[in-house]
Amino acid sequence: MTRYHDQFTDIVNFIDANLDGELDVERLCKLACLSKYHFHRQFSSHFGMPVISLARLLRLKRAAYQLAYRDDAKIVDIAMANGYESHEAFSRAFKKHFNKTPFQFRRSPDWTPWHSKYEPVIKLRTMIMNENSDFKVKLIDFPETLLAVMEHRGAPNLLGKTIQKFIAWRKISHLPPNKSKTFNLIYDDPAVTGPENFRFDVCCSVDNGVEPNDFGIVSKTIPKGRCAVVRHIGSDESIGVVVNFLYSKWLLDSDFEVRDFPIFFERVSFFPEVPENEMITDIYLPID
Description:
The structure is a single chain. This protein is of the alpha+beta class. It has two domains: 3-131, Orthogonal Bundle (Arc Repressor Mutant, subunit A); 138-286, Multidrug-efflux Transporter 1 Regulator Bmrr, Chain A (Alpha-Beta Barrel). It has ten helices and eight strands. An eight-stranded antiparallel sheet has the order 1-6-8-7-3-4-2-5. Helix 5 crosses helix 6 (87-98). The model has no long low-confidence stretch (mean pLDDT 89).
């Protein structure tokens, strides 16, 4: 990795961790070891936008997660928490990036317009993970785990609506993440699967089978057995690099074969409760 990639990684991580405060450009210049003039030129060249614009994007992304998945937060409070002085200013900025007002996005989250504007950050995070792809793999015996599952079938960009419904069911069922572990079952690679065929399960651990319900929640089980596990710290935008590493380099170099069960994630900590670069996800590959 080049020195500039290291520097810009530090900068994005610093902004991620300090979204609540004013952007300290002097501090960012010191992190980059550049004068203010050269810093702004290098940053804009690398990301295709000024540093202020990137900070605004990261705040809007956090706001979008809060709108979609934290329905107890008022829109005006989300606006203020993300640096906007009024509901109106927040709504204008949000609609410019998401093609929906905050109220419309909360009712029906769709991330499609966002990704084109956020592409430089996605590329940086993916590149960083690819260049540091010697991940630490542990072998564990995973216990049989009963799950309550909401199945998402369809375009990945509409997954947010499924997650919203699942969160609502968890609240009604009194199964918060601090009492019930959160899992995802990953059946398909969105990079090679048509949107209409994409399958992804949103799950939590339960002690008993799920009763019939109006949410479409069903029971499934993670079978006990050997798994290779990697702890991923950081954004979901680069998590595919770890998945590809397990399926390709690690599996090919090992004496194991995959079991007849999909790769799955355990969500240990969540964005926006923690900064995006501090999210923790354990990635399990079932093996024999």
